[in-house]
Design goal:
122 residues; mainly alpha; three-stranded antiparallel β-sheet; 7 helices; 3 strands; elongated
């Protein structure tokens, strides 16, 4: 089965497609196409009072960002690489401070259910 990008590229540059055709080409729901149009993520052309059509170039623009992102490193990976090295001694000191704080606080007499409920209320 052909990929969405290949199907869209086979359209002529000036070809317009319906909402249903765009959904089929992108392999998404027509409702999702409508949401993308409403949010401004997918430009559409109005023909008459009720008819909407979408340009091939606009469909390609929707799938283009995912292709460009594949070659870029993940943001969390970039952050990890930018983090300074932490010595073993600094890690041990941090762990010691956490354990001290836990001892100061003591046990919490609350069930998991109560904790979840309390968190939802806040």
């Amino acid at each position: 089965m052909a990929q969405p990008r290949e199907l869209i590229e086979n359209l002529t540059d000036t070809e317009l497609v319906t909402i249903e055709e765009a959904a089929r080409l992108l392999r998404i729901s027509p409702v999702t196409v409508w949401r993308m149009i409403k949010s401004g993520d997918l430009p559409a052309l109005r023909i008459g009072r009720k008819t909407l059509r979408i340009r091939k170039s606009d469909l390609l623009a929707i799938i283009q960002p995912a292709i460009e992102q594949e070659s870029q490193p993940l943001s969390t990976l970039e952050q990890t690489e930018a983090m300074p090295e932490v010595s073993q001694e600094e890690r041990q000191q941090a762990a010691y401070r956490i354990l001290q704080r836990r001892e100061e606080i003591g046990p919490i007499n609350i069930s998991v259910t109560e904790l979840i409920h309390d968190g939802r209320i806040r």
